[in-house]
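Hey, resending since the last one bounced:
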Amino acid sequence: MPDENKMDSNAEKDVDANIAVAVATDESVGAGKIARSIEKANPVILLLFMILIMVAVLAVINLRGNGSAKPGIGPDDPVMAALKADVDARRSELNRQRMAMGLPPLEGGSEPIEDIAERLKNDTDTLVGLAGRFQQMLGDKDAEISRSNSEVLNLEKRWQHLSLENSRLQSEMNRAFLAASEADQLKRLVTDMQAQRDALSLELADTRAKLADAAGSVNADDYGDLQRRYDETLRSKAFFENRVNELESLLNKTELFAKSENELLPAAVELFRRLRKLEGMKDSDLTTEYSKLGVELGANVLHTLDFKTGSSELSPEEMAQLAHIVEDDAPDGDLTLIIGYASKTGDPVANEKLSSDRATIAAEHFSTLKRPGQNVQAVYLGQTDRFSSRVPERNQICEVWRIRKK
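The structure tokens again:
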């Protein structure tokens, strides 16, 4: 029986030793795997993992040193020696990381596990605080980057708006140059035609005089020739008079319609500029701005002409309204400015032409009715939703403005 008990005790010791070796080996291998998996991680995370590993290893050593291990495992045991060497290596690596981060190194020896744990806890709290501050700094940096990106987007939008505005102004300037050239050509043609008409009038008068003088002294053939020349001169005179009237009408139409701000009469320039900036305003703000135009520029809307979709024809009611304005609401010396609009439905280019046609036709009708002292001019602002964003037909209009003479 004693031998059996002794054998059982030895077997138990062997089993316990094998378990301890397996545990130590597993702990060492597990720690090594964890350390290798986080080698590429953030130094703060790496240090935290190293601290946890040290605490776990020291706890195991402390428990075994306090008698939790089997009697056969002592200080000179190979397993304990391997664990001690591994702990020393971990401590050296941990101290190197701590020194790199400005923390004091951990001391070895017989320092109680409670002190080590307390120090490790304090270091962990410090690192957590640093990590929190780093996180806050990253959040502030992200917010700053977001603000910078927002500013960049705003600058990009402004640049695009300025580019579009520059293109529009360049286009208006080109049209103004072309219109000025056309007007100069028309003026020269009118002058030439008037000169030819005057020359024909003189020739006609001379022919009449000759016919009167030769009425009783020439034969029938000569008189017939003079009569034919006289008739041809009359026809030429009529042709040139009609041509002069056509050119004068075209010239008046050119001066009547302003294709751009540069062609507007001086009294209308500021009103046109300020109306162009009212797109996208609320109804309340729009009413306020219109009131300011009346106070600051002496300008007010006399009437709004309505047009059918896609049409620039004046209805009989609108013609009668224009006649009423000419008669009662447009004093001599004031400027009547007719501004054409179109809704945003359909093709923008076609809408731009439609708004100009509406203003031109209204101004031409007004011009046929006006007195010599009354002034009228037409211009367009293209498509809009200023007057209603829900009902497009309310934007198919012409505004008839009165600008008081200063």
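Residues 170-256 form a domain with the Helix Hairpins fold (CATH 1.10.287).

Sorry for the duplicate.
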